[in-house]
Structures are given as structure tokens and as C-alpha cells.
Amino acid sequence: MSDEKRTEISDLGEFGLIEKINESARAELTTTIKGIGDDASVHDAGDKYILISTDLLIEGVHFDLAYMPIQHLGFKAIAVNISDIVAMNGTPKQMTVSLALSNRFSAEAVQVFYEGVKAACEKYNVDLVGGDTTASPSGLMISVTAMGECDKEKIVYRSGAKENDILCVSGDFGGALVGLQVLEREKQEFLANPEMQPKLDDYEYIVGRQLRPQARLDIVHELAQVGVVPTSMIDVSDGLTSDLFHICKQSDVGFSIYEDKLPIDKQTFETAAEFSMDPNACALNGGEDYELAFTVKQEDFDKIEKFEDISSIGYMHSKEKGRVLVTSGNQIIELEAKGWKHF
Amino acid sequence: MSDEKRTEISDLGEFGLIEKINESARAELTTTIKGIGDDASVHDAGDKYILISTDLLIEGVHFDLAYMPIQHLGFKAIAVNISDIVAMNGTPKQMTVSLALSNRFSAEAVQVFYEGVKAACEKYNVDLVGGDTTASPSGLMISVTAMGECDKEKIVYRSGAKENDILCVSGDFGGALVGLQVLEREKQEFLANPEMQPKLDDYEYIVGRQLRPQARLDIVHELAQVGVVPTSMIDVSDGLTSDLFHICKQSDVGFSIYEDKLPIDKQTFETAAEFSMDPNACALNGGEDYELAFTVKQEDFDKIEKFEDISSIGYMHSKEKGRVLVTSGNQIIELEAKGWKHF
């Protein structure tokens, strides 16, 4: 293609590239209920819907083995994919894990990686049923695919949010990003002085958020327990604002969220201050929390209010009213998506 | 892990590594009918079985863009995964394609790749429903997952072959390997003299076998048409002998195949001679043909004999009688598996 037009992928950006690729998407089969454009695809298998989601994790792009123990990496690779099945209100069933490895990696390291995979499979009660393993010219590349099931009447898309729905989230936000800052700082200090022992004791929660995130399968179970099917749902991997924008775009609505309702852990809050970062900005734009953001009808809200790990942070309204943050000082700020950039 | 025992993956080999990984496999769910160990995993979704298969394709390991047009690569990535679903006697339904790309690749190149993906999806009537796209520190890595369905009574494993079953194959063998020799030779000549035009006209069939292999979904349809369910089946990706060994191991049987029954295309035969290669050895050990090898009960054989693209090459017998080739001169040769080695 040397004589032809050349557009750098970095000029298009990840979302631009994905849009180009989506032009090749095909959803022709009557059994394909949902193709590209949600957390997982949906296939009608008769009795049930089958959900498929896949992720790539590339060394030097998505993880740094200088501070990511390879066992945690195995756990995380599974958890982040299960999170996508969970975001459809589904139950994960089977996983495949493929690895491309350079000769830097020993067989023992691969086994330790799989110990993490196995721990996650046990935690979320999914089976590891396949994969592929091959040489790589450089570094480690992991490809994980999750397959799950969902009862047809319980499936939740990004596209179902309605005006006046309550906007809820699970867990807390910003921890994974602030945890990453701690790990980066320790790495730099270690490089400067290899004798130094890492000082992570005070940061256990947020470092854990970065290294060993959890998929919120428990939330799916809680919703089922009280018979609530959210009107829309997404897993927050790129950042809360950025992922809420997907719900807005696909549901054709806007939202207001309240700064003083953003769930932020004390450790996230204090450590952000240590790095002179705004904890609210970390909660809004930090990625990799792998919590759920979802909307419920007003009449359903009192059924889920009792669950400690679910917070309401705002509500949905017309698109015309925008996508806004109401600050503690009652200022209204139009939000911008600031997701992760890999290219 | 610097102080710990270090085993090089190259010392274990691909199969040794896979064996280690299989120790982490988990197949605990009652809905997991088949985990690791066949062409695809099998999940019981109520009405139907759901099949999942996944493959990694790494630049410099599995393909060389010096002679592999990127559009064909897109096609091949889909076809080889569909081949795994087909080998379970299943119907492919949905695909995901993930790419990790270095900045060597333009957005246009990615689009051309997806044109190949789309062509394959149309040919095999499957939907492209997801994927992931990210930066790569070097080269191109492709991860494809195929999801398919199978009626429960039609599923075929590697493990069902019985003594006296007839051993059949689709298509012909060795073409992809000999085609690769042609492409390698043209690449060397091009490197020596970049003005040279490639001379591929006389090798169209075998070069096509290498660059644009086909999944034998047509064979699944033919079998269904005459109501034959094979007793075992595998797709021949590593090499005929090596893949038949999987059937033997899992079915606890042996086989005899006849040299003069090996289906070899005239172009494969003649070109092998040009490279001083034994065409029979190419057919037995050359990989990437993506044909099907399967066994049927004797009483079913006359129902499939009429299909031009199916040949019987031998029969199954007790494990004690070995895995043998009967030569044209009536010599009996014990076969050895010579699969692909990536590490």
C-alpha cells in the first residue's frame, strides 16, 4: 500500500478506528440480537440468550509487569471480561484465554499466570474451556473471551435508559487510577534505588483496585433477588463520565449527577490529595474501576436502596438538558469524556 | 521469579506447555459438556449446544506480510476458526476479531484487513459481533473467537471413533505446505531482485490453499443432508498424521491408512517434486490444509461415498495394531506425529 493514502491510526484515535471497523460489522442472522456496540454481543439460542465479550491485554500498553504480579494479571484478565457479561445482567459461564509469549517468560511464570486465572474462575464460578498459546516476537499478549447466559426477559442494554430514571453505580470510583499513581511512584523509586522495599501498606485498597479488580457479579445477584431489571447498564472501564456517555448516546438522553454523591473511598480521597489530584476528577475520569453504572425506574429504586454497595448519583433527563455535573457549590458543569487513549 | 526454577518454554514445547496449562482448566459447571481438549468447547444452553473456539495469529510466527496480502489474512483468520466449529459438526454463528497493531499499520491497511474478514463472514454466513483494537509494541497480532451452535444429537467429538469405522477426509492434502514453499521462494527472489514480478500463475491452487484456506462447512451440510453423524471428527490444521493422533488418543484406537488413497492435488504433486519433496510426506505432515478428518460407521459409508470431495483413506482398528501407513508397495510403516512447532 505504499502508493496509497495513509492515515495514521493515532490520527484517527481508538474510537475513530473502531468506527471504521464497525463499518465491517455484520449482524445479518435473525439469531443475532445484538452485534457490536454494547458490553457483549447477544445471540438467541432458543431457551436463552448467549453473550460473548472479548478483550486484549498487551504488555506495555495495558499492564506493566514491573509492578503487576503475573498472578494478579491472570485474575484481572478474567475479571474484566466477566465484568462485560455482568454489564448485560448476564451470568458468565465459560472463558477462553490465549497467550502470546516471548522467550523472556518461563514455563513457571506461565503457570503462575494461570493460578490467577484459576482463582478468578473459581471466584466467579466459570469454566476455563479453551485458548491458544504461541510464541510472540516481543512481550506478553493476552486475549480473553467470556461467554455467558441471560434469561431473555432480563437482558439489559446500554440503550434503554429513559428520562426520570435513577442513575446508580456500584462500589466506589477513582481508586484504580490513584492506585496506579502509587505503583508508578514506587516503580520510579525502585529504579532509582533497587535496594528499596516498596511501601504499599498504606495503600492496600487502592493498589488492589488497580491490580486485582473485581467483577460485580454480586450486583447482578442482588438485582435478581429483588426482581429489578435495570433499564440500562454498562461496566465502567474507561471512566465513569466516558461510559455514561455511551448510555446517553445509545439511549438518547442526558443526565445530571451530583458531585457530593460520587462514591469515593477514604483512601482514594486522601491519596489523590497526596498526588495533588482532584479526587472528584479521579472518580469521574479514572478508568479501570470495573464497577457498574445503571439506570432504574423510579418505582424500582426503593427496592435496591437497601444494598450498601449501590449508590444513586443522579438521574436521567432529556438530551437537551445535557450531561452535567452539579457541584457541591450548586454550579452546573457540562462534562467531557476523557477515556483511555491507547494509540 | 529470578531466584526460582526456570524452565524454558522451548524445552517444554507447545504441547508440553499446553499440558501444563490444562492443569488449570476448569470444567465444573453442569452446563459445560466439553472443556479443553477438542476443536471447540461445548456448553449446554437448553435447546442447543453452544460451541466456542479461539485462535491467535501472530506476525512472524503464523504469517508473513511479505507474501500474505492483508485482505487474505482477514479471510484466513475467520476461516480457520470456523473450521474448528465445523469439526464439531456445528454451525458457526458469531465471530469476534481483536487486533493489536504497531504504528507500522495505517488505518487503510486495517480497513483492507476487515474487507477480508467481511468476505469470510458473508461466505460462511456468520456475524461479526465484537472485538477489541489496541496498540502493539511490535507487529500485528490477531485474536479470533468463533461461537457456533449444534443440535445436541449431532455433536461430534474427537473421542468417538470405534474399531472398524471408516476413516474419511475432505478435500486434498499437502497443498498449503507446498504453496508456502512457492511463496518463500518468490520472497527470496524478490529480496534478491526487487524489480522481479512474482511468478505465481502456475501455482494458483496451492498458493490459494496457503493464503486463503476454506472452512469445510459444506461437508457439515452434506453429512446432514444424508443423515450421517460421524463417530469422530477433527479439523486438520497441524498435519494429517498429527491430527489423526488426537483422534486415536481420545478414542483409544489405532488406524491404518493407505498411501495410494491419500488425496493429493496434481499441482501439489508436481510442485512438491520441483522442491524435491515427497508429496505423500507433504500430505501426511503438511499443516494448514483445514480439511476435515472423520470416522463413520461402516453402514454409513455408502451414504457419503457419492460426495466427490470426501475420500476414504483407511479404517480404525485396535490401539495395539498401531497407527500405520500401508505404502503402495504394501509395506507397513509406523507413523510419527510431526506437527507445527511455534516455540
3D architecture notes:
With 343 residues, the first copy, chain A, is of the alpha+beta class. Chain A has two domains: 9-154, 60s Ribosomal Protein L30, Chain: A (2-Layer Sandwich), CATH 3.30.1330; 166-334, Phosphoribosyl-aminoimidazole Synthetase, Chain A, domain 2, CATH 3.90.650.10. In chain A, 35% of the residues lie in helices and 24% in strands. Chain A is built from ten helices and 14 strands. The first copy, chain A, has helices at 9-22, 70-86, 107-124, 175-192, 204-211, 217-225, 240-251, 266-274, 279-285, 298-304, and strands spanning 32-34, 41-44, 49-58, 91-101, 127-130, 133-135, 140-150, 166-170, 232-236, 253-258, 291-296, 310-318, 323-326, 332-334. In chain A, strands 1, 2, 3, 4, 5, 6 and 7 form a seven-stranded mixed sheet that branches. In chain A, a hairpin with a 4-residue loop joins strand 2 (41-44) and strand 3 (49-58). In chain A, helix 2 packs parallel to helix 3, helix 4 packs across helix 5 and helix 4 packs across helix 8. The longest helix of chain A has 18 residues, at 107-124. Chain A is globular and about 55 Å long. Chain A starts with 8 loop residues before the first helix and ends in a 9-residue tail after the last strand. The model of chain A has no long low-confidence stretch (mean pLDDT 93). Chains A and B meet through helix 1, strand 3, strand 4, helix 3 and strand 5 of A and helix 1, strand 3, strand 4, helix 3 and strand 5 of B.
